[in-house]
Structure formats: C-alpha cells, structure tokens
Amino acid sequence: NLSNHVANGHLGCSKAAHPADPGLPALFCRRSSLPVMLRRLSSARSSKSITGVVDPHVHYWGPETHAWLKEVVPGGAAHDTPYGRFAPVAKPYTPKMHSDNLSAFAPLEKSVYIQANMHATTGAPVAETAYMQGLADVTGHPHGIIAWAPLDKPEEAGPVLDQHMKFKNFRGVRFMLDFHPTRSELNQTDRGDYMSDKKFLKGTGLVEERGLIFELQVCQVQLSEAAEFVAKFPKMQCVLNHAGFPLKGEFDAWKAGIVKLAANPNVACKIGGLGAYDGGFDADTAKPFILACIDAFGVDRCMFSSNLPVDIVDWPQGSPKDRWATYLSAMQDAGYDKASIAKCFHDNAIKIYRLD
Length: 356
What we know:
Elements: H1 2-8, E1 17-18, E2 21-25, H2 36-43, E3 53-58, H3 95-103, E4 108-114, H4 119-122, H5 125-139, E5 144-147, H6 154-164, E6 170-174, H7 198-209, E7 213-216, H8 223-231, E8 238-240, H9 251-262, E9 267-271, H10 283-297, E10 302-304, H11 311-314, H12 320-333, H13 338-352
Parallel strand pairs: 3-4, 4-5, 5-6, 6-7, 7-8, 8-9, 9-10
Antiparallel strand pairs: 1-2
Helix pairs in contact: 2-12, 5-6, 6-7, 8-9, 9-10, 10-12
C-alpha cells in the first residue's frame, strides 16, 4: 500500500540531472478567570496585536515534486485509502499561496518546510533539501528545511545527514513514527517498534551528534513511549508535531502523555492539526488542548503552526485565519501577556529552528 511505499521510498520517477548537481534527479526542483462578557469580547479580537508570524510547519509541494500526490486523486492507486483525503490539496502549494493564506491573520515573516516524502519520489533524500534550498534562494521561503534520512539504517543515515548539511537552510529530519495498534488509518509508518529498535536508536544518535533537530511525530497512544525515547538523547532538540495528534473524547489520556513528554526539557511542541482524525476540532473543542500544551511545555517551548496545505482537509473548521485566531483567543482568554503570545507565534520558532 501507499504507506509502505512512502515510508520506504519506493515510489519511482525519472532521474534526469539536477542543474545544481548532476547526481540529483531533476524535479520541479497560569490562567486567570475572566467574566463571560470579557471572554466573548476577546473571541472577537483582531490579530492586530500580532505584527508577524513564523510558521514552523508547512509543506511546499506539488505532484511534480511529490509524486505520491498523483496517487491520491480519483482514479489513483491510493484514492480509496486514508491518503485519498488529500485529493483536494494534491496540487501545487507555493510560498506565495502560503503567505496569502496567513496574511489574512498576520504577515508571514518566515517559514519552515517539513518533509513530505519527496524522497519517495526521487529515491535520493537530499533532493528534497536541494530543491527546497533552491526555492528559498528564489522566493525567500522556506527559511528552515526539515528533510528525511533513513535513521533505521544508520550506516546509510550518516552520509545522508552529511549531504543535507551542505545546504544552509537545512535544520534537521523527520522520520514519522506514528503507529496505532488498532486504528490503521492513523499510521504513517510500517511498524510501531522503532523507538526501541537498536538500529533506529543508533541512527537517531547520529542526529544528536550533529546538533540537528529531530521532528517527533507520534500518535497519542505513543506519547509515553516517546517520553522515554527522547530522554535517551538529552542534547538533541526534539519538536513534537501536531500536539501529538489528540483524539476527540480522549483528553485525559492525551494530556497524561503530553505531561510525561514535556518533562523532557529538550522537547518543544508545535500546536496544529488538532483533531486531524476526527474531522478537525472546532474552536471550543480545540482551546483546552491548546492551553494544556502551553501549561505542560510552558510559553518558551510552544509554537503555533499551520500544517498547510494538509490542514485544509485535516482541520477544515473555518479558514487558516480562523485557526490562527483560535490560537490567539485561547491565549488571550487565559490571560497570557503580549510577550508570551509573541513567543508562541513568532519568537520560539526563530530560536528553536535557528532562523535569525
């Protein structure tokens, strides 16, 4: 199925020479209680207090660069799988489009591209970084690049990481670990034991040795295990994706895992993609999850993220502006000051992804 192909890089494409490197494929290359009246007023506040945002999680893609998108449209091999939900966004998504989407809320200052299995298209993990660096050189975005490396094969991972590091905007890797024992539609990898696998642990150690970021993407049921996993790499900056994919009706179980994970000071949390597997959370449902993340990790380790264009289908409650307004009203209603709000919308992403 597509998940195995994507996880293992088996999707094919042509191997024409990349103009920058003949060896690369050429591609379209503390809460206060507030009166109800104040809460209602705060929900209607504009984003004027936010002068600019840094988005630490965006996917600039298109079918020509990320060929798996061709499989999710009607008639494609993956259209009748959970990946078929991406059909509405299986088209080019560019920095200009992203800036336009976020500017309705606040100006987009900087962005971080998160790997989207382009390696499955090219067979060469570094092609993703090379392409995104070229995009950054031309458009200014992305300012940070998170790519992929075969951490389960440490003998291959080291050279791949070193190749990535030749590009100035490269910051780290994501190897998706989300695996649910009973809900296969949540799985983004082929097995659930990577975090205890000796080879994978060795490969992850190579990330730590190089001072790179590890993007931690797990299911809610894996949060406790993830807490033990990241503790083995105390010098490695880890960033939890999508707040650990909380599931509707399971707040207490999710929060318990978040608290355990947040006890590791080397972990930061990106808040976004809320309710991705439950049709997306509306604002009232989302706010307790937002505030629980901030309570657990603190304002110095939380970042709001768009997850666009994925959240167009995975969190379809309103527009991108509406989702960012939900983040803002949650913090304002809880009594956070402007400095704390600025950290979550802007400053922390600059610091964690070294974008200054």
